[in-house]
Amino acid sequence: MTPKIHFIAGLPRSGSTLLAALLRQNPRFHASMSSPLARMVSSVLVEMTGEDGPLVSPEKRRNVLLGLFDAFYAEENAARKVVFDTNRGWGARLPLLAELFGEVKMVCMVRDVASVMDSFEVVVRRNVFSRSALFLNEPERATVYTRAEAMLLPNRTVGYALASLKEAFYGEQARSLLLVEYDHLANLPAQTLALIYQFLGEPPFEHCFDTLQYDAPGFDAGIATPGLHLVKPSVRAATRPTVLPPDLRDRLSQLNFWRQPGYSQVQFVRHAGSGASGGTDGAARLVIESAANEGEPHHLNTGLQSLR
User: Fold this and answer.
1) What's the pTM value of the predicted model, to 2 decimals?
2) C-alpha neighbours within 13 Å on the C-beta side of residue 104
Protein backbone atom coordinates (compact mmCIF):
# COMPACT_ATOMS: atom_id res chain seq x y z
CA MET A 1 0.00 0.00 0.00
CA THR A 2 1.19 3.51 -0.80
CA PRO A 3 2.56 5.41 2.22
CA LYS A 4 0.92 8.64 3.28
CA ILE A 5 0.83 10.96 0.28
CA HIS A 6 0.85 14.74 0.04
CA PHE A 7 0.77 16.89 -3.08
CA ILE A 8 2.76 19.83 -4.40
CA ALA A 9 1.20 22.07 -7.03
CA GLY A 10 1.04 25.78 -7.92
CA LEU A 11 2.89 27.84 -10.51
CA PRO A 12 6.08 26.95 -12.40
CA ARG A 13 9.35 28.70 -11.49
CA SER A 14 7.91 29.33 -8.02
CA GLY A 15 10.00 27.01 -5.86
CA SER A 16 8.31 23.61 -6.16
CA THR A 17 11.59 21.92 -7.17
CA LEU A 18 13.43 23.80 -4.41
CA LEU A 19 10.79 22.62 -1.93
CA ALA A 20 11.19 19.03 -3.11
CA ALA A 21 14.98 19.29 -2.80
CA LEU A 22 14.58 20.42 0.80
CA LEU A 23 11.91 17.88 1.75
CA ARG A 24 13.95 14.97 0.43
CA GLN A 25 16.57 15.73 3.10
CA ASN A 26 14.12 14.17 5.54
CA PRO A 27 14.73 10.38 5.50
CA ARG A 28 10.99 9.81 6.02
CA PHE A 29 10.10 11.64 2.78
CA HIS A 30 10.23 10.99 -0.92
CA ALA A 31 9.97 14.15 -3.04
CA SER A 32 11.00 14.89 -6.60
CA MET A 33 10.25 17.12 -9.59
CA SER A 34 6.94 16.98 -11.42
CA SER A 35 5.74 13.42 -12.02
CA PRO A 36 3.48 12.05 -14.78
CA LEU A 37 1.08 10.49 -12.26
CA ALA A 38 -1.63 13.15 -12.63
CA ARG A 39 -1.77 12.60 -16.40
CA MET A 40 -1.72 8.84 -15.93
CA VAL A 41 -4.68 9.05 -13.55
CA SER A 42 -6.63 11.09 -16.09
CA SER A 43 -5.78 8.69 -18.94
CA VAL A 44 -6.86 5.63 -16.98
CA LEU A 45 -10.08 7.35 -15.92
CA VAL A 46 -10.84 8.20 -19.55
CA GLU A 47 -10.46 4.52 -20.50
CA MET A 48 -12.69 3.37 -17.64
CA THR A 49 -15.47 5.78 -18.59
CA GLY A 50 -15.35 5.25 -22.34
CA GLU A 51 -17.21 2.75 -24.50
CA ASP A 52 -16.94 0.04 -21.85
CA GLY A 53 -17.73 2.42 -19.01
CA PRO A 54 -20.97 0.67 -17.98
CA LEU A 55 -18.92 -2.44 -17.22
CA VAL A 56 -16.71 -0.62 -14.71
CA SER A 57 -18.48 0.33 -11.50
CA PRO A 58 -17.51 3.47 -9.57
CA GLU A 59 -16.00 1.27 -6.86
CA LYS A 60 -13.84 -0.55 -9.42
CA ARG A 61 -12.70 2.79 -10.84
CA ARG A 62 -11.73 3.95 -7.37
CA ASN A 63 -9.80 0.74 -6.67
CA VAL A 64 -7.98 0.88 -10.02
CA LEU A 65 -6.87 4.47 -9.43
CA LEU A 66 -5.70 3.69 -5.90
CA GLY A 67 -3.83 0.72 -7.35
CA LEU A 68 -2.15 3.05 -9.83
CA PHE A 69 -0.81 5.16 -6.95
CA ASP A 70 0.36 1.99 -5.18
CA ALA A 71 2.14 0.69 -8.27
CA PHE A 72 3.73 4.01 -9.19
CA TYR A 73 5.30 4.44 -5.75
CA ALA A 74 6.00 0.77 -4.97
CA GLU A 75 9.78 1.31 -4.77
CA GLU A 76 9.51 4.40 -2.57
CA ASN A 77 7.12 2.58 -0.26
CA ALA A 78 9.89 0.23 0.78
CA ALA A 79 12.03 2.98 2.28
CA ARG A 80 9.83 6.03 2.91
CA LYS A 81 6.87 6.82 5.13
CA VAL A 82 5.61 9.85 3.19
CA VAL A 83 5.45 10.56 -0.54
CA PHE A 84 5.12 14.01 -2.10
CA ASP A 85 3.84 13.95 -5.66
CA THR A 86 4.35 17.13 -7.66
CA ASN A 87 2.21 18.18 -10.59
CA ARG A 88 0.67 21.55 -11.41
CA GLY A 89 -2.45 19.76 -12.62
CA TRP A 90 -3.40 18.38 -9.21
CA GLY A 91 -5.34 21.55 -8.40
CA ALA A 92 -7.85 20.75 -11.14
CA ARG A 93 -8.13 17.20 -9.80
CA LEU A 94 -8.64 18.08 -6.15
CA PRO A 95 -12.22 16.70 -5.93
CA LEU A 96 -10.96 13.37 -7.32
CA LEU A 97 -8.09 13.27 -4.81
CA ALA A 98 -10.51 14.02 -1.97
CA GLU A 99 -12.71 11.14 -3.12
CA LEU A 100 -9.73 8.77 -3.28
CA PHE A 101 -7.88 9.73 -0.10
CA GLY A 102 -10.36 11.62 2.07
CA GLU A 103 -8.33 14.35 3.74
CA VAL A 104 -5.86 15.84 1.23
CA LYS A 105 -2.99 18.21 1.91
CA MET A 106 -1.61 20.21 -1.01
CA VAL A 107 1.20 22.77 -0.86
CA CYS A 108 0.90 25.29 -3.70
CA MET A 109 3.97 27.35 -4.50
CA VAL A 110 3.16 30.76 -5.99
CA ARG A 111 5.05 33.79 -7.24
CA ASP A 112 4.32 37.06 -8.96
CA VAL A 113 3.43 35.97 -12.51
CA ALA A 114 5.76 38.60 -13.95
CA SER A 115 8.62 37.07 -11.94
CA VAL A 116 7.61 33.60 -13.16
CA MET A 117 7.81 34.75 -16.76
CA ASP A 118 11.02 36.65 -16.09
CA SER A 119 12.60 33.47 -14.72
CA PHE A 120 11.60 31.49 -17.81
CA GLU A 121 12.92 34.27 -20.03
CA VAL A 122 16.32 34.24 -18.31
CA VAL A 123 16.66 30.47 -18.88
CA VAL A 124 15.63 30.78 -22.53
CA ARG A 125 18.08 33.64 -23.19
CA ARG A 126 20.88 31.75 -21.45
CA ASN A 127 20.50 28.86 -23.92
CA VAL A 128 20.91 30.84 -27.14
CA PHE A 129 21.92 27.78 -29.20
CA SER A 130 18.87 25.75 -28.14
CA ARG A 131 15.30 25.92 -29.43
CA SER A 132 13.33 25.36 -26.24
CA ALA A 133 10.45 22.90 -26.53
CA LEU A 134 8.44 25.24 -24.31
CA PHE A 135 7.46 26.86 -27.63
CA LEU A 136 5.95 25.02 -30.57
CA ASN A 137 7.24 27.08 -33.47
CA GLU A 138 9.34 30.07 -34.48
CA PRO A 139 6.46 32.60 -34.32
CA GLU A 140 6.02 31.67 -30.65
CA ARG A 141 9.76 31.98 -30.00
CA ALA A 142 10.07 35.26 -31.91
CA THR A 143 10.05 37.86 -29.08
CA VAL A 144 9.63 38.17 -25.36
CA TYR A 145 6.01 39.15 -26.01
CA THR A 146 5.17 36.12 -28.15
CA ARG A 147 6.96 33.82 -25.72
CA ALA A 148 4.91 35.18 -22.82
CA GLU A 149 1.66 34.91 -24.78
CA ALA A 150 2.45 31.32 -25.75
CA MET A 151 3.11 30.22 -22.17
CA LEU A 152 -0.11 31.90 -21.01
CA LEU A 153 -2.30 29.94 -23.39
CA PRO A 154 -4.91 27.83 -21.52
CA ASN A 155 -3.21 24.51 -22.20
CA ARG A 156 0.39 25.64 -21.84
CA THR A 157 3.00 25.92 -19.12
CA VAL A 158 1.87 29.01 -17.19
CA GLY A 159 -1.73 29.38 -18.39
CA TYR A 160 -2.72 25.85 -17.39
CA ALA A 161 -1.00 26.14 -14.02
CA LEU A 162 -2.84 29.41 -13.31
CA ALA A 163 -6.21 27.93 -14.26
CA SER A 164 -5.62 24.75 -12.23
CA LEU A 165 -4.57 26.76 -9.17
CA LYS A 166 -7.55 29.08 -9.52
CA GLU A 167 -9.96 26.14 -9.71
CA ALA A 168 -8.61 24.69 -6.47
CA PHE A 169 -8.36 28.13 -4.83
CA TYR A 170 -12.08 28.82 -5.27
CA GLY A 171 -13.26 25.21 -5.00
CA GLU A 172 -15.01 23.29 -2.24
CA GLN A 173 -11.74 21.74 -1.02
CA ALA A 174 -9.83 25.02 -0.78
CA ARG A 175 -9.05 24.35 2.89
CA SER A 176 -6.83 21.51 1.66
CA LEU A 177 -4.45 24.09 0.16
CA LEU A 178 -1.54 25.93 1.72
CA LEU A 179 -0.27 28.73 -0.53
CA VAL A 180 3.42 29.52 -0.09
CA GLU A 181 5.07 32.49 -1.78
CA TYR A 182 8.44 31.74 -3.36
CA ASP A 183 9.98 34.75 -1.59
CA HIS A 184 9.04 33.34 1.82
CA LEU A 185 10.75 30.02 1.08
CA ALA A 186 13.83 31.79 -0.34
CA ASN A 187 14.16 34.43 2.38
CA LEU A 188 12.94 32.56 5.46
CA PRO A 189 13.35 28.86 4.62
CA ALA A 190 13.45 27.53 8.18
CA GLN A 191 10.26 29.31 9.23
CA THR A 192 8.49 28.45 6.00
CA LEU A 193 9.34 24.75 6.22
CA ALA A 194 8.26 24.64 9.87
CA LEU A 195 4.85 25.99 8.87
CA ILE A 196 4.57 23.54 5.98
CA TYR A 197 5.27 20.70 8.40
CA GLN A 198 2.65 22.12 10.75
CA PHE A 199 0.07 22.27 7.95
CA LEU A 200 0.84 18.71 6.88
CA GLY A 201 0.74 17.35 10.43
CA GLU A 202 4.25 15.95 10.10
CA PRO A 203 6.80 15.88 12.95
CA PRO A 204 9.46 18.64 12.77
CA PHE A 205 12.79 18.04 11.06
CA GLU A 206 15.92 20.18 11.02
CA HIS A 207 16.89 20.96 7.44
CA CYS A 208 20.21 22.19 6.08
CA PHE A 209 20.00 25.09 3.63
CA ASP A 210 23.58 25.00 2.29
CA THR A 211 23.94 21.44 0.99
CA LEU A 212 21.13 21.05 -1.52
CA GLN A 213 21.49 18.59 -4.36
CA TYR A 214 18.97 18.47 -7.18
CA ASP A 215 19.18 18.54 -10.96
CA ALA A 216 17.37 16.86 -13.84
CA PRO A 217 19.75 17.32 -16.78
CA GLY A 218 18.26 14.49 -18.81
CA PHE A 219 14.73 15.85 -18.62
CA ASP A 220 15.84 19.43 -19.25
CA ALA A 221 17.93 18.35 -22.26
CA GLY A 222 14.91 16.48 -23.61
CA ILE A 223 12.94 19.73 -23.79
CA ALA A 224 16.00 21.68 -25.00
CA THR A 225 15.94 23.93 -21.93
CA PRO A 226 19.11 23.11 -19.92
CA GLY A 227 19.13 24.25 -16.31
CA LEU A 228 15.36 24.48 -15.96
CA HIS A 229 15.27 22.24 -12.86
CA LEU A 230 18.73 22.90 -11.44
CA VAL A 231 18.58 23.82 -7.75
CA LYS A 232 21.54 25.79 -6.43
CA PRO A 233 23.41 24.33 -3.43
CA SER A 234 22.33 27.09 -1.02
CA VAL A 235 18.97 28.70 -0.38
CA ARG A 236 19.65 32.34 -1.05
CA ALA A 237 17.35 35.13 -2.13
CA ALA A 238 18.95 36.90 -5.09
CA THR A 239 17.90 40.17 -6.69
CA ARG A 240 18.63 41.31 -10.22
CA PRO A 241 17.07 43.65 -12.76
CA THR A 242 14.15 42.14 -14.65
CA VAL A 243 14.60 41.32 -18.31
CA LEU A 244 10.92 42.00 -19.08
CA PRO A 245 9.81 45.27 -20.70
CA PRO A 246 7.88 47.46 -18.21
CA ASP A 247 4.53 47.21 -20.01
CA LEU A 248 4.70 43.40 -20.10
CA ARG A 249 5.72 43.15 -16.47
CA ASP A 250 2.85 45.42 -15.37
CA ARG A 251 0.33 43.39 -17.37
CA LEU A 252 1.54 40.07 -16.02
CA SER A 253 1.48 41.26 -12.40
CA GLN A 254 -2.27 41.81 -12.74
CA LEU A 255 -2.70 38.02 -12.90
CA ASN A 256 -1.76 37.52 -9.22
CA PHE A 257 -5.33 36.68 -8.22
CA TRP A 258 -4.36 34.99 -4.94
CA ARG A 259 -3.19 38.30 -3.49
CA GLN A 260 -6.83 39.46 -3.34
CA PRO A 261 -8.13 36.25 -1.81
CA GLY A 262 -11.82 36.98 -1.24
CA TYR A 263 -14.30 34.12 -1.66
CA SER A 264 -11.81 31.40 -0.77
CA GLN A 265 -11.18 29.18 2.26
CA VAL A 266 -7.52 28.70 1.35
CA GLN A 267 -4.68 29.05 3.87
CA PHE A 268 -1.55 31.16 3.36
CA VAL A 269 1.93 31.50 4.78
CA ARG A 270 2.14 35.21 5.58
CA HIS A 271 4.02 37.74 7.62
CA ALA A 272 2.50 38.07 11.09
CA GLY A 273 0.17 41.04 11.38
CA SER A 274 0.05 43.75 8.76
CA GLY A 275 3.74 44.69 8.86
CA ALA A 276 6.83 42.91 7.60
CA SER A 277 7.91 41.99 11.12
CA GLY A 278 5.93 40.28 13.82
CA GLY A 279 8.36 39.57 16.63
CA THR A 280 9.14 41.83 19.57
CA ASP A 281 12.77 41.88 18.43
CA GLY A 282 11.78 43.25 15.03
CA ALA A 283 12.64 40.01 13.22
CA ALA A 284 10.32 38.84 10.47
CA ARG A 285 7.90 36.17 11.62
CA LEU A 286 5.70 34.01 9.41
CA VAL A 287 2.37 32.45 10.33
CA ILE A 288 -0.39 30.47 8.64
CA GLU A 289 -3.53 32.53 8.13
CA SER A 290 -6.84 31.70 6.51
CA ALA A 291 -8.25 33.83 3.71
CA ALA A 292 -11.77 33.04 4.91
CA ASN A 293 -12.20 36.36 6.74
CA GLU A 294 -11.14 38.45 3.75
CA GLY A 295 -14.23 37.91 1.63
CA GLU A 296 -17.62 36.36 1.98
CA PRO A 297 -18.31 33.41 -0.31
CA HIS A 298 -20.95 33.68 -2.98
CA HIS A 299 -24.11 31.67 -2.25
CA LEU A 300 -26.07 30.12 -5.06
CA ASN A 301 -29.81 29.55 -4.76
CA THR A 302 -30.18 26.05 -6.11
CA GLY A 303 -33.92 25.80 -5.48
CA LEU A 304 -36.60 26.27 -8.10
CA GLN A 305 -38.43 29.56 -8.22
CA SER A 306 -41.86 30.02 -9.77
CA LEU A 307 -42.16 32.49 -12.57
CA ARG A 308 -44.42 35.46 -11.86
Assistant:
1) 0.88
2) 27
